[in-house]
Each structure stands twice: as structure tokens, then as C-alpha cells.
Amino acid sequence: MNYLRLKKRKDISAVLKNGKRARGETLTVVYLPAERTAMAVCVGKKYGKSVERNRIKRLLREAFRLRTETVPCRVLLIPKVAEEYSVAAFSRDLNKIIRREKLEDPHR
Asked: In Å, how far are 12, 13, 52, 61 from 81, measured between CA atoms?
């Protein structure tokens, strides 16, 4: 893993309060520029039982892991409710958002 995980409530609240939102087809990304990359995933009970929620979290973490080298931000990933979830859909949407919001650091 090349990124930190946001685990503390105050860190996640700071990103939600001060961060910018970018919406895509399958997920919403809340980001706050930082020196190191850090990420958290928010999946509530409306997404299904724990097995389904944990699968969504794994898929989102994998999609984000593929792009961690070039994104120096604190990121909060919030998926949209759907019938099917896939790494490919999350990856495609995350790439679009990163390019549109210019979150990449070319020096990394």
C-alpha cells in the first residue's frame, strides 16, 4: 500500500467539512489537498448487509490503489447505490474525476 488510511473521526470530519466534492457516475469523491495520500471509504447500511458493504469497500480500495502514486490528497470515497458494483466501473470513474479535478501531481 502506498497510501495512509483515514481512520480517526476528526480526520474524516475535516475532509467532509473543508474538502471539495466531485461527482461521477458510480461514486462521489471528497478530497482535500495534502502532502501524503490518505484515503477512507464511507459505505452505510443503505448499501446492504455487511457482506455487500465489505465487498464494495474492497472494490473501492483496489480502484484507488491503482492510482495512489500520483494523487497527493486526503480522499473520501462514497459509492452511489447500484445493483452491481465492479472495480472497472469504480476505476474508470475515479480516473475521470482525477483528470477533471486536476488532482494528479506530475512530479511523483
From this structure: 21, 22, 11, 17
**What type of residue is 53?**
R
44-81 tens-digit pLDDT: 999 999 999 999 999 999 999 887 777 888 999 999 99
The one-character DSSP state at 66 is T
pTM (predicted TM-score): 0.88
100-25-92-28 Cα dihedral, nearest 10 degrees: 70
Closest residue by Cα to residue 41 from 18, 10, 64: 64
CA distances from 42 to 6, 16, 52, 100 (A): 11, 11, 13, 22
